[in-house]
Amino acid sequence: MTQTIAKSQIPAALQGAIHTKLFIDGKFVDAESGETMATLNPHDNSVIAQVAMAGHADVDLAVKAAHKAFPAWSRMQAADRGRILLKLADLIEANGEELARLESLDTGHPLRDCRMLDVPRTAGCFRYFGGMADKFQGETIPVDAGFLNYTLREPLGVVGQVVPWNFPLMFTSWKMAPALAAGNTIVLKPAEITPLTTLKIAELMREAGMPAGVVNILPGLGHVAGQYIAEHSDIAKIAFTGSTATGKRIVQASAGNLKKVQLELGGKGANIVFEDANLIAAVNGAAWAIFHNQGQACIAGSRLVLHENIADAFLEKFILLANSIRLGNPLDPDTEMGPLTSAMHRDRVLSYVEVAKAEGGEVLAGGVSPGGDLANGCYVRPTIVRVKSHKDRVAQEEVFGPFVTVLTFKTDAEALEIANGTEYGLGSGLWTSNLQRAHLFAREIRSGMVWINSYKRVNPGSPFGGTGQSGYGREMGFDAMREYTQVKSVWVNIDAQIKPHYPR
């Protein structure tokens, strides 16, 4: 077994904050096999720590603990469940700097983004669903005379959840908060390459008073622990965020016991800029849409669709802005763009530059890794590629990096055709001062979310999810609570006089 890295090699501000064991039944424990896996700092590919790697036996133990905890947790007064989530939100804020540094170290997110976005959004999500716990209710339905008919919204039981590596802290809250508020217990697998902040959340949950077994966290490989969670007969639901290809395998694995499945998958977001758009706002919004978090977002605006009359003026400003973005160590507060989260992914993103060139595309900016002090890291410069057709591979396949394709259009009909010309349907944006056009496109674009004169806005109260190859089901809002509950219809005969069906 590989030894855990020495504490002295961990940044001083984070010594004592890093958990490397599985979290099962309220305790941090080693994997049954004793196996570990390295989590790396993408800035220089150095090892941060060796983290326990869950196998089938660990999943079984976690599911057993979650089953044992379910009756008491599901029957707990909803307001009391909510108070624990509200306490957790407070603790996340109190430990915000530590969480931000840990997320930055493990993922490559710029520290300033972790401070301003990731941590506040995580606390906000737990706080939102903590407040919702006692406000989610059934209905009374008018039926036949003499009968009372009402519905109960009941938790599903033990739910399995798989969190991706691009926003591990934030997505941990997106997955856990509604499931817990609804009364479910959880077996969650963080991404194998970014488990550290999720394990820190486990510590804070324990401090907030979460009963043992309600939440279990199992770092491990997707094709081992993740696959077994999807297959497990005692897990009632699997909620997965990640690639479309893996999502399809999750569906196949879950078919054996017909568990409920919720999928938030890939995207290829169109970001349309019309002739009448506020150009400065659109340029800044488009840069945020694709370069925030190094483009590693399923909702990234990775397809710029520009009206031909403003394309040159837009690109002049956009290229200048892209080339000015400050790359560097994500723990430096001045860094605006950090590394991609792994060397393997960096190489994959760069391979699409060659694909674009082979298809006749023109690289307008980036397309390379920086050298110098950043040469050992997983960095890619902001990349802008003008493509020949919306059917080109780089305009169809999810690159998942700071890589944006550029297309032009003449008419609204052509813009809509391009926007709807992929198998994905997660997020899309448009920039225009024409109110009628804005609402028309919002209706006609095949996408789970549409942003008008903005991009990539999220809120715990607003449903998040896609259509087509982008998956099904919704995170956030009341829709998320529905995803984690099932409806029971109750009929009560108050004073109905029912005639015998078989009179004698």
What does this entry look like structurally?
The chain has 504 residues and is of the alpha/beta class. It has two domains: 264 residues, 3-Layer(aba) Sandwich (Aldehyde Dehydrogenase, Chain A, domain 1), CATH 3.40.605.10; 183 residues, Aldehyde Dehydrogenase, Chain A, domain 2, CATH 3.40.309.10. It is built from 14 helices and 22 strands. β10, α8 and β11 form a beta-alpha-beta unit. α2 packs antiparallel against α4 and α2 crosses α6. The radius of gyration is 24 Å and the shape is globular.
| Oligomerization state | single chain
Strand content: 15-25%
CATH topology of the largest domain: Aldehyde Dehydrogenase, Chain A, domain 1
Whole-angstrom Rg: 24 Å
- Global outline: globular
Identify the CATH homologous superfamily of the largest domain: Aldehyde Dehydrogenase, Chain A, domain 1
Q: Structural class, please? A: alpha/beta
CATH class of the largest domain: Alpha Beta
